[in-house]
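Board notes (copied after class):
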Amino acid sequence: MDAPGPTSDQTDFEAAEQHVLDIVRRAGTSFYWAMRFLPVTKRHAIFAVYAFCREVDDVADEEGAIEDKRLELALWRDEIDRIYSGQAERPTARILAHYLRSFPFEKSAFLAIIDGMEMDAEGPIVAPSMAELELYCDRVAGAVGSLCVQIFGEAGKEGRQVAKSLGLALQLTNILRDLEDDADMGRLYLPLELLEKHEILSRVPHLVLRDSALPLICRELAERAETEFARARQAMAKCDREAVRPARIMMTVYHRILKRLRRGDWRDQLTGRRPGPVSKFLHRLEKLLIALWQAIF
């Protein structure tokens, strides 16, 4: 007698898991390498969190009418409600609902991420105040970190501090690394206070990037990132070393990116140069080696 085949629910779940994995693999980020060393349940749960972030981020980044973006983000808010009521419909949401049984995801964190993406979707962010920038970073990175530490098993005070400080440090590093790409989308995340301090009058992103005072602003923002990396490191020292290993890998990778930017004094941003294929390959290889090193030690 033939063994029974997979049920419709099993097939749908496997298709949803494949959907999540495809999103993570296509992204090709350091996040993928850092999380590959987690136990399978935690790894799949955190991949689902990443896929959710990627999907709502795409809503904000893709071209389209603001009204359409608002509607799509509103639909995602509805989907978050359905995750917590056991009625998730979208593939990624279904996987998140599955892992909600194992990890105490805070609903407010998912909604905060959507709020952060809505800040981008409402129109290009240009020269926000430092307070607004920190709010944005807390939503798009700190909230993600809070979900991650719940999966890692460090949801207490120190874990929350890791999420907050590391989230801010990573996002500031992203901002400093992606100035040119953001400017292409009309965005300028450098805080208003620093532009005014260094007497940059323009608010046109590409003109700001060509200003001779740009390295001074970047150095100050890099110092703030360094402060947050240090705070995250101190908090990690009080956490279970095994639990926060993925966060430590992410911190190592991004801190190296920040140090590389500082050594280059943001010349690539001033000249509009972007890394070529060989450089990108070496960076990916470096990420893998860092992940392997951290996994062993």
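Comment from the instructor: The chain has 15 helices and no strands. The radius of gyration is 20 Å.
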